[in-house]
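Researcher: I'd like a candidate sequence for this fold, 141 residues long. If you have to choose between options at a position, lean toward the conservative one.
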């Protein structure tokens, strides 16, 4: 569970890197270090479904995020703009809102202090970036 959460966080952060944001970099570094330690200890299995009763079936973790993922993808697909700049901002706002929703699930359901810390950092950083993008959008109209 920790592995999946750390990897998801690292992937989400690398996909929307704020161009050198020290919080994002610290989260990526922590996730990489955790993953490396788990690989060294043999905690990472070769198959993502190893140990599950039904290969490919959604896990409890998958189900926890299903609604927020579906909402994010739907909002991103619907977001548009007249120019590349406007479309980018619209889609990234939807993407960041999805990241915040996912982090809120982790804050609600996780008891791991490190995951909760990372999730709160995502909420803080992404909320700030959403406000910045909305301000740009308002000034461009």
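Model: Candidate sequence:
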């Amino acid at each position: 569970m920790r592995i999946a959460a750390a990897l998801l966080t690292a992937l989400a952060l690398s996909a929307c890197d704020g161009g050198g944001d020290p919080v994002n970099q610290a989260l990526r570094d922590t996730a990489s270090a955790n993953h490396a330690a788990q690989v060294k200890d043999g905690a990472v299995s070769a198959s993502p479904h190893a140990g599950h009763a039904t290969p490919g079936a959604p896990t409890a973790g998958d189900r926890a995020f299903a609604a927020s993922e579906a909402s994010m993808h739907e909002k991103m697909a619907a977001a548009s703009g007249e120019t590349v700049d406007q479309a980018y901002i619209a889609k990234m706002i939807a993407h960041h809102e999805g990241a915040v929703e996912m982090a809120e699930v982790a804050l609600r359901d996780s008891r791991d202090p490190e995951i909760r810390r990372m999730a709160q950092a995502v909420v803080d950083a992404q909320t700030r970036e959403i406000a910045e993008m909305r301000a740009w959008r308002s000034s461009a109209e």
